[in-house]
Amino acid sequence: MKELKYVGKETVRLLGPQIVTGKAKYTGDFKLPGMQYGKILRSPYPYAKIESIHVEKAKAYPGVSAVVTWKDVDRNIYITNGFTPPKHHHIMDEYVRFIGDAVALVVAETEDIALEAMKLIDVKYDVQKPVFTIEEAMEPGAPQLYPEFPGNIAPHKNNLNFEVGDLEKGFQESDVIVEVDSSIESGQNPLPVEAPVTICWYENDTYNFIASAAAPAYCHQNVASSLNVPYEQVRLTAPAVGGSFGSKLYSGNVQPLVFAAVMAKAARCPVMFNYSKEEHFAIHQNRMVTKAHIKFGMKKNGLASAIEMSQIADAGVCASTQEFMLAVGTNTLPILCKTDNKKYDAKVVVTNHMPSGSFRGYGYMESTALVSQAIMEACEKLNIDPVDYLVKNAMKKGDRYHNAMAEPHPWQENKTADWSDLVVKTAEAFHWKERFKGWGVPTWVSEDGKRVRGIGVGAAGHSDTGGKPSNANVTLTGLGAVYLSTCMAEFGAGTRDVMLKVVAEELDMPLESIRVSDSDTGMTPPDFGSTGSRSTYCGGIVAKRACEDVKKKLYHIAHEKYGVPENDLEFKGGCVVRISNPEEKYMLFPHLMGKVDSVTGCGHFDGVHNSTIFHLQFVEVELDLEMGTFEIVDHFGGSDAGVIVNPLPVRNQMQSFFAGIDIACMEETVWDPNDYRVLNPSNIDYKTRTFNDVVPHDHIVLESMKNIENDYPFGAVGVGEPLLAPGGPAIRMALYNACGIKMNSYPFSPAKILKALKEKEAKE
């Protein structure tokens, strides 16, 4: 492979200077002529019928342009996306189904005027009996939230349930079988600094948006579907997005835009709509609650032999992406359990609390936590070192695996690296073999016996890196300027930097000569977006293919004008060069193109389902047996990036493990058990890690050339998605090794730990 000029080299972030100097323009920075502001009157009840609503006083309030109730909204407007089961969730309805549900929309000259006008709206409710939990929703005779969902169970849009291999034989061949029940009920919040902001204006039968959308083209599609209008009657531009962490994807992406669209059409002017921080916490979306039962079989040689898993997800009031997220999570099964014998069954249930939705690592976080628990139990019973288990069960190149996302071809062949290499090297760096003394054995005990330490390991993978289409165009002008046209948004991960470097490398052009387009669905080719660790992989591929198309067209031009064979040409140093005679060169201008001429190449990628990513985390915790508190005293991670395109963002990605460990340590949405009102809707009340709480951390990133022969951009794969999932299981294992307790629900609060210690003491 030739030496690379830009890929793998340290460079300043494309938007870095603008962001740190405050010059980057976010949606909230735009001020359009005649723009007004929208706010939402929200329900104080978790489930009620609106008996009457009077808005006359609000409409008459000075500065108010429009007041919209459910009676004014087209009944064909639903919140939908590509994964939504039958249409069911109106943006406004005669029923409100959670505290914070929309009752009325108010548009006014200022936000303050809108808020004052909201106070004048008179609403009478017929309060209904709600259902707050999965168990309540599924009880016989429970209130039915939607007639489309008998028993409050959302029908599958796709076949989520599956059984492959020979499950019965697998369990028969097992030397140990464990069964565990577990759950994730933390309601972890994505916590981007920037809440969703949307500007919409309705003009010439077109809804125009400026929005903080993480996947603009996909959001465009879903907004058009939600508004029940043709695709071409929507246009969306995404400037600087800010953070997302899943909160600005799918239904979480769609709802703010649909609200803004209804307001803009009613007010007949551009409308800015944004969530307050409290609204973003309390009504937007959080990580879905899941409950699971797992039956897991293992042989004494440390190989998994069979796994059967049933899982139920709480959608809140809107069944949107939960089915998709569960399906994504099933890819944990082949990555952590090297057996063909698998069965999976899942349900999505609707309840009377805020919608759950996408959150970084969606599906994987939930399934990894649950599957890891079963693996730990089995390893303990057979006295198997968990690292030895991971080495033996790690997916190797060429291994086949079942992918629930890839029907009708569920068996895929892994085309990426052998992950056992990563397990061995990361364990060596952490000195696992020297530190692990056996199951339930602490690594250290204080002299007074009040503090103990234990170590643990967690692993997670991702096998849906592609799976959805991507597109990009590259235009090369006669004067040597290069324009990359992409709809893939940038929200902090360095996505556009990667694509920029790929273009520079492929065209042998300086980075400074390349410009990248805004994410504008009216001007750029569609793309599924920056999600699921696909940005480097899919964005890099389409950028590379677009450049290849540019060069192919230039070679054809050279052949037509000068008769040189197209297969004897290469593009180097900004001109076409004859391979057999490097002195023979054809400049873009004047040889091939005019001053105002250009060549555009198109890059398309359908997406694949057979690329995998793997990540490990090792931790050591110190536990105070009297207080039930613990702290992480050592942390070590490992990832395989294939070939690193952009070193700085990769290092930044590695630091994001905090969001994964903190679901086990502290993060939790607290709901009032009486009405499921969010009790901690602010950064003050919702406990998160600060810079003062940073734990010791080191990380190795293996660079491997094993992917270079595949259709990967210079051998690169994504690294972002699996980072969050292993931390919780690693901490759970470390707590067990420290003091012998088994924690079954996040977060591992002092109260839960003390309760577990008392129960353990009582058994002894």
Model description:
There is one protein chain. This protein is α+β, with helices and mostly antiparallel strands. The chain has 3 domains: 16-24 and 466-605, Aldehyde Oxidoreductase, domain 4 (2-Layer Sandwich); 33-122 and 193-243 and 248-284, Aldehyde oxidase/xanthine dehydrogenase, a/b hammerhead (Aldehyde Oxidoreductase, domain 3); 289-465 and 610-763, Aldehyde Oxidoreductase, domain 4. 28% of the residues lie in helices and 24% in strands. The protein is built from 21 helices and 31 strands. The strands form 7 sheets. The protein has an 8-stranded mixed sheet, with helices on both faces. Strand 11 (206-211), helix 6 and strand 12 form a beta-alpha-beta unit. Helix 12 (386-393) runs antiparallel to helix 13 and helix 19 crosses helix 20 (727-739). It is globular. It starts with 15 loop residues before the first helix and ends with a helix. The mean pLDDT is 86.
